[in-house]
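Reply to dn_fold:

You asked what the input looked like. This is it:
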Amino acid sequence: MSDTIGTSVSDRGRRQDRDRSRSRDPLETLVDALTAATRYDLTLGFIPAVFAVAMVVASATGLSVVQALTPAAFVAICVVVDALYLNPPIDPRSGRDRRRGSA
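and this is what came back:
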């Protein structure tokens, strides 16, 4: 208790948050990060994962790099089209779809 004398309230709050974060389970931290991820965060993570899987498949099956990356590129293009044109980002200030201009 003596270590809190002379420290500001905000310093005590930061210390308590730091102590809580040290005692958290890594799985809880991962779950919190994944639940905070948006559709577009997952899209940006999915695209390089598709190419990584394609390279692993190419090396495991003996396919050429071009043969493995062609389907991966097609999947990545489909994901980008979905993220930008079929389900475009919404402007948080107006709550409107940027492409359609509707609510």
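The first helix runs from residue 9 to 23.
Hope that clears it up.
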